[in-house]
């Protein structure tokens, strides 16, 4: 589940840097001018950072930080969904953000079980 999140964030980071206009449409907040694409590229660089960080945490099996990272990450699709809604994006875009929130919460609870099991078994 975490690996899927990492892949998706890596994809978003790459496409936001290589094609910011298309990426902004995918996310539901279209650019008024391609001159504004700098901000989308800045988003992309930060997304790639998050991808690398979560990839490292998964590689080192730091499930406690991954667990809290999944929970705290909920703030991003909440704000993205609100921005998409305010920009009058298609309803399916807003639903995608809601689905992301639910996915992150499921990841949090799955990782919480893993962490609790590891604590009980002494791993």
Count helical runs. Answer: 6
Mean pLDDT value: 91
Q: Approximately how much helix is present in the residues?
A: over 70%
Strand content: under 5%
Number of domains: 1
Largest sheet entry: none
**N/C terminus separation:** 21 Å
Backbone shape: elongated
The parts where pLDDT drops under 50 for at least 5 residues are none
Order of helices and strands: HHHHHH
Explain this structure to me?
By secondary structure, the protein is mostly helical. The chain has one domain. Helices cover 82% and strands 0% of the residues. It contains six helices and no strands. The chain is elongated, with a radius of gyration of 16 Å. It starts with a helix and ends with a helix. 24% of the residues are buried.
What is this structure's SSE topology?
Layout: H1 2-18, H2 20-27, H3 37-59, H4 63-72, H5 75-86, H6 91-121
Keywords:
123 residues, mainly alpha, 6 helices, elongated
Précis, in short:
The chain is mostly helical and 123 residues long.
